[in-house]
Amino acid sequence: QQPVQSPQAVILREGEDAVINCSSSKALYSVHWYRQKHGEAPVFLMILLKGGEQKGHEKISASFNEKKQQSSLYLTASQLSYSGTYFCGTEALSGNTPLVFGKGTRLSVIA
Amino acid sequence: DTEVTQTPKHLVMGMTNKKSLKCEQHMGHRAMYWYKQKAKKPPELMFVYSYEKLSINESVPSRFSPECPNSSLLNLHLHALQPEDSALYLCASSQADRGVGTGELFFGEGSRLTVL
Questions:
Q1: Does residue A44 sit at the B interface (CB-CB below 8 Å)?
Q2: Strand, helix or coil for residue B109
Q3: How far apart are alpha carbons B9 and A70 in whole angstroms?
Q4: Are B107 and B91 in contact (CB under 8 A)?
Q5: Cβ distance A57 to A51 under 8 Å?
Q6: Average pLDDT of A62-86?
Q7: Does the pLDDT value for residue B98 go beyond 60?
Q8: What is the mean pLDDT of residues A9-32?
Q9: How much of chain B exceeds pLDDT 70, in percent?
Q10: Which of B113, B59, B111 is nearest to B84 (CA)?
Q11: How far apart are CA A88 and CA A100, in angstroms?
């Protein structure tokens, strides 16, 4: 089942912060985050595993609330290079279910 | 080498043509994937090969036929496609161990397919 991402789109000025949310109705084994720039392939940002954790990647970090089956991606002090579409992907805890991507959040950082 | 290489980058074909998309990785990954992506949509899983065996087929029409000749190569054979099959086809690989989740996906740049 496809995870739900919010917001669908966000526009930021350089230096501003943003939060992108991802939620699932299923118990999750993992949450993945990818960024895709226009005309390019998706690029891996991070994976968060069951057990509830927080990870950081430069000025981009994420958390996973296992009880709520929700993950949030935090972008701090945004840079122009952060522009793109962010996809979360989720793997359910039960069954041999593959990674399913959410519909994406389009992030535009302007000067 | 952390690259997934896809060829061709662009392909235009008629509905009666037969063509193939190719994907190669030399990272020793044992899981390889085909995704289809339409404009402004997320990648949609088509097939997964694990240890050179087809492990997931997401109810893809038979006009798409995957093949995994060895652990480094993945092909997608196309025949009698429809205009609505026009999309970006992404190949990916991961170091997924059996039963331990997908792991980090390394995507190729994709093959942009147009069906006339």
A1: yes
A2: coil
A3: 36
A4: yes
A5: no
A6: 93
A7: no
A8: 95
A9: 95
A10: B113
A11: 8
Which of A99, A101, A105, A108 should one mutate to test binding to chain B, selecting the residue with the greatest count of B CBs within 10 A? A99
* Mean pLDDT (whole number) for B69-74: 94
Report how far residue A75's alpha carbon sits from residue A54's, in angstroms, rounded to the nearest whole number. Answer: 13
Q: Which of the residue ranges A43-52, A68-77, B102-111 would you say has the lowest mean pLDDT?
A: A43-52
pLDDT, residue B56, reads 86
Do the Cβ atoms of A103 and B101 come within 8 Å?
Answer: no
Contacts of B108 in chain A (CB under 8 A): 41
**A87, B43: Cβ pair inside 8 Å?**
yes
A4 touches chain B (CB under 8 A): no
Tell me how far CA of residue B38 lies from CA of A63, A71, B45, B59, B65, in angstroms: 29, 25, 12, 17, 19
B96 contacts chain A (CB < 8 A): no
Q: Which two tokens stand for residue B68?
A: 């995994």
Say yes or no to pLDDT of B89 above 70: yes
Q: Determine contact: A93 vs chain B, CB below 8 A.
A: no
Strand intervals (E) in B30-97 = 31-37, 44-50, 53-57, 64-70, 73-79, 87-94
Across the interface, which of B40, B42, B55 has its CB nearest the CB of A101? B42
